[in-house]
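thought: user wants a sequence for this fold. calling inverse folding tool.
action: design(structure=
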């Protein structure tokens, strides 16, 4: 019965690891994809006014670049965003390691 309990604990540990890995990947991917999404949105808005995609892109890219640079110049904003991601990683690591204590108690 102990082997079955350990197998269930390991399976749940793997699921928690996968969920937190997915969350971290989503978090950092969102930071990269937000400006790209904003460019696409501005291109679509410019197309409402009858501009073609090339001209819309030439307008949207500098606007988004200005917004990104303005956000970059905000003091401690980048540090807070990075610390949030690191906290997510450390929380996931703690949760995965918590299963090891459960496994040790089951083995005894």
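)
observation: tool returned 108 residues.
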């Amino acid at each position: 019965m102990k082997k079955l309990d350990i197998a269930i604990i390991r399976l749940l540990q793997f699921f928690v690891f996968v969920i937190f890995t997915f969350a971290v990947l989503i978090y950092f991917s969102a930071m990269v994809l937000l400006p790209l999404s904003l460019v696409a949105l501005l291109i679509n808005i410019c197309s409402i006014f009858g501009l073609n995609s090339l001209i819309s892109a030439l307008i949207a890219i500098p606007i988004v670049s200005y917004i990104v640079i303005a956000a970059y110049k905000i003091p401690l904003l980048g540090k807070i965003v990075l610390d949030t991601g690191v906290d997510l990683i450390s929380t996931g690591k703690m949760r995965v390691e918590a299963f090891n204590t459960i496994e040790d108690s089951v083995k005894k």
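thought: summarizing for user.
answer: Here is the designed sequence. Helices lie at 2-48, 53-72, 77-107.
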